[in-house]
């Protein structure tokens, strides 16, 4: 095997970091330029400095709880500081925005640790994402139930559509569960479903409960951030129906395969599809979706870009 000189590896690492950061920023700028549906000229009529600060504060809390969740997950085998957890969370976010459903986050977080800890990091990231998806699914079902109880004419069609979709989702879940159960001993690169199940069981109930709580808090923060924006833009929708629709939106958007950079397009389209039936103007929903994307993805990606540029291979790893 041909050995690559140390300086060449260092140059390659710098090049990769620059490509990741420049690519992320390029796509963000392009997305900002293509948001023609947003009425920029009248946004200031709705959003005051006070409201802008509160929206930003909610985004900060959103990411604080995501960082705390990763710090908690890693605590299962080692202790890291909040700042180190922030570096890993935001840095991996920036590195993974080009990958479908942020799958690149798994590999990106593993780079912050020794190679022998890679499988453990992949597993912990899987646990964190699974709990977040479980919360999204739970509130998606809750949103469906609230819609049915409200028996609002405007929500009746959503309830019916979601009933069919919900049935298909449960059927798919059962098929996947049976598949995992049947082939639980089959392994890929030495990792089997049975090993994942065993590793899951080794973690205490309290550990999983804390992960679930942090996931739920984070979810409720950005769900209410969306509802707060609905109120800012004078969207006439009640708290129950508003949150029910937001819950449905996040659930539907979360199961559509996409590149994370296109998050605004996916969630925006689903939001327009749902909120249009509530009589809310399309430009308001497009603007709200953009603001959610900007505060919860663009700003963290920009901060994460700094961490990516400063990233160094773990000291104990040889290049």
Describe this structure in words.
The chain is mainly α and 319 residues long. The chain has one domain. It has helices spanning 6-34, 40-46, 49-74, 82-96, 104-110, 118-150, 153-182, 193-202, 205-232, 239-254, 263-275, 282-310, and strands spanning 187-188, 191-192. It has a two-stranded antiparallel sheet. Helix 1 (6-34) packs antiparallel against helix 12, helix 9 crosses helix 10 and helix 9 packs across helix 12. The longest helix has 33 residues, at 118-150.
Radius of gyration: 21 Å
Strand order of the largest sheet: 1-2
Quaternary structure type: single chain
Report how far the terminal alpha carbons are from each other: 14 Å
Number of helices: 12
Q: SS-based structural class?
A: mainly alpha
Features:
single chain; 319 residues; mainly alpha; two-stranded antiparallel ribbon; 12 helices; 76% helix; 1% strand
Short description:
With about 325 residues, this protein is an all-alpha fold. The chain has helices at about 5-35, 40-45, 50-75, 80-95, 105-110, 120-150, 155-180, 195-200, 205-230, 240-255, 265-275, 280-310; strands at about 185-190, 190. It has one domain (about 35-310).
SSE diagram, text form:
Blueprint: H1 6-34, H2 40-46, H3 49-74, H4 82-96, H5 104-110, H6 118-150, H7 153-182, E1 187-188, E2 191-192, H8 193-202, H9 205-232, H10 239-254, H11 263-275, H12 282-310
Antiparallel strand pairs: 1-2
Helix pairs in contact: 1-12, 3-4, 3-6, 3-9, 4-5, 4-12, 5-6, 6-7, 6-9, 6-10, 9-10, 9-12, 10-11, 11-12
